[in-house]
Amino acid sequence: MKYAVLAGALSLFSITAAANQASLLSYDYVEVGYTKTDIKSNDKTDPDSPMYSGYDGYVINLSKQIFESWFVTGSYSQSRVDYSSTTTFTSFAPLPDGTYTSNMTDSYYETTDMSLTRYNVGFGYIQHFSRETSVDYALKYGKSKVKTEETFVHRLESDGNVFDVSKTYYEGSETADSFEVTAQIRHLLSEQFEVNAGVGYERLHGVGAGYVRLHDAESENNLLLKAGINYAVTEKITFAASYSYTDEYADIAAAAFRYYF
Predict the structure, then answer these.
(1) Which residue segments constitute the domains of the chain, with CATH numbers given?
(2) Phi/psi class of residue 24: alpha, beta or left (left: φ > 0; alpha: ψ in -120 to 50)?
C-alpha cells in the first residue's frame, strides 16, 4: 500500500514538473489599470445606500516568478471619492441686530474629500497541471488607509444681506493591516482567452472609528472571492478584468492592461 501511495506521489510530481517546463501561463508581468472600491461601513460608498458613490482610482499589480514553482507579488492602489451637500432652512425671526423681523435663511454646505490608499506584498507557490491550467497559492500582507477632509460652511442671510459666515474644517484617517491567504486557478480557453477564479480568507486589524472606518470592529476571517478574464491583445500585452468580493468591507472591480516580461 505504501508503495502505491509513493508511486502516486511521484507520478503527480512528475506531471507537475513536466507541466512547469511547458506551461503557457506566465507569472512574470506588471499591470496598470482602473479600480473601483465600495466600503460597506461607509454610507457614502455602500452600494446599498441612496448616497452611494464608490472610490475611483488606479491600481498597479506586479508578479515575478523567482524559482521554478515560486513567485512574489505586490499591489498598490489609490482612489478617492468627493461629494457635497447643501441644507437650507427658512424662517421668520428677528435679525441678529434686533432691528426688524424678516425672512431669515440658514444655509449649511458640506464638502468631503475621501481618499483610499491600499498596498500588499506576498509570495506564492505554483502548480502547473497542464500547459493550459495552473493553480497558485499565495500569502499576502497589506495595509489600507482612509483619509477624510471635510469643510462645513454656515451662512446666515436675509433679503440678500449676509449677517454671518462660519467655516469648520475636519481631517481624520484610519489605517488597517490585512492578512490574506488565497488559492487561484488559471485556465487558458484558447491562445487569447484566459479565465481565472480564486477563493481565500482575509483578516483586518485596525480601529473602526467614525464613518471613515474600514470595518465595524476587529474582524474575523472574511471570505474572499475573485473571478477574472484576460484577453491577449498581443504576445506581450493583455487586457485583464477582475472582480473581487470581501463580505465585510469592500467590493473591488478592476480593469487593467498587463505587460508580460
Answers:
(1) 2-81+116-143+177-260 (2.40.128.20)
(2) alpha
